[in-house]
Amino acid sequence: MNSIGKQVLNALKGEINEIDYQRYIKQLTYDESESKSNLAVYRAPNALIANWVRTKFADKIAHLFEIKTNIKPTVSILIQSAQSTTTAQSQAISSTPTERPSGSLLNPSYTFQNFVVGDSNNFAFIAAKNVSEKPGVVYNPLFIYGGVGLGKTHLMQSVGNVMLSQGKTVIYTSVEQFLNDFTRHLSNRTMDRFKDKYRKCDLLLIDDIQFLSNKNQIQEEFFHTFDALRNENKQIIITSDKPPKKIGGLEERLKSRFESGLVADIQPPELETKIEIIKKKCEINRVKLDREVINYVATIIENNTREIEGILSKLNAYSQLMGVDITIEFARNVLKEQMAEKRSNITTDLIMDTVAKELNIKPSEIRSKSRNSNIVYARRIAIYLARSLTPNSMPQLAQYFGMKDHTAVSHTMKKIQELMKNDEDFRMKIEELSNKVSIATPE
Q: Helix, strand, or coil here: 375?
């Protein structure tokens, strides 16, 4: 009889396309020895497949488990070749391995060496590096906040991997798992074991602390856990999608504790950092892309850099299945549906607002007859994007922008196209703006 993990993958087969199933899902094996009722562990043959499944299918897998077992587990996708490493980690991570939180294994690829530093994340990187060198001494707690997929967990676990290599006891968990663990021990009347687990480690890593909001009982327990660790000079690192003072439903004493160390934010990466991240991901996953393709991918990804791994996996899979190299034309063709979905609801007003915000010019100025060079520059870009991303005709755009007739729009299009052809930096800026329009939402 198939294990529950295999049953879930069989059920998933009916919900996804055959290529994705054969290329990725079929390669997974369910690890019954590591899995529990609230943790489903699968192993993949390489990092590329593991990253793709985490990005695209982890939520679906968790949902199918919930349908079959009435419990929605944390889904962990580990690399098959790393089994011996992760087994060693599981022993080092907690002084009582049977009591470690589900999903507490660290991702071995989350290291400082693999983290791409740019202006958007440099402060958080330096802070985390300092903490890894002097845990419990500087910046305790270290509170890292920022949007989804910007590298908060990567930095947090980088510290964990450094300390793990030194034989320290590291616990990594999410607020949801901390809550589940607390509830289970409370109902089993084994709270002493819960306290031993979380209060006797050298480093506690807590992801997504914003989910403590309005959970009074667990806030009380976390407060005491926090104080117990800090009083022993044990390091605490916390991540959130917002700074402490902006987390609603959180006790003031907890906000005060979180702000008592160092609060560091990570901003969305600038274009140059996106390019470097893609190069690093290509190196790690052994995907070959030329400079033109790398630059193109950098312009179309959103702020969530996790999207990069999904795109690289998709390009690599299609390339291998079709037996062709990844050229810029190939990349555009493979990703065209992804881009078309983003651009389905774009309006000229949305383009105008986005360009105005990015170039710090009022929309009314762009539509005016001003010949100021900055305004003319913004107007030309807005016209080009409106013609490229919307179904509006040139006469319609001429009327919208207050031009004499459609020949002015045609002249603008030719001017921008010529600049894009001769200036790669300008072309990349236009493509990045195009993507920002695609992911923007009306005010």
A: helix
Distance from C-alpha of 221 to C-alpha of 191, rounded to nearest angstrom: 11
Distance CA 429, CA 420 (A): 9
Read off the amino acid at residue 441: T
Sign of the CA dihedral running 37, 43, 49, 50: positive
Please report the sign of the dihedral spanned by the C-alpha atoms of residue 264, residue 270, residue 274, residue 280: negative
Over the stretch 41-59, which tens digit does the pLDDT of each residue have?
A: 999 887 778 877 887 888 8
Which pair of structure tokens corresponds to residue 291?
Answer: 């400079």
Q: Distance between CA atoms of 172 and 160, rounded to whole angstroms?
A: 8
Lowest average pLDDT, out of 44-48, 174-178, 196-200, 416-420, goes to 44-48
Q: Which of 3, 69, 80, 77 lies closest to 38, judged by CA?
A: 69
Q: Residue 310: which of 330, 287, 341 has the closest Cα?
A: 287
Q: Which of 77, 88, 86, 129 is nearest to 108 (CA)?
A: 86
Contact 76, 33 (CB under 8 A): no
The secondary structure of residue 78, as a DSSP letter, is E
Strand arrangement, sheet containing 29-30: 29-30, 39-44, 74-79
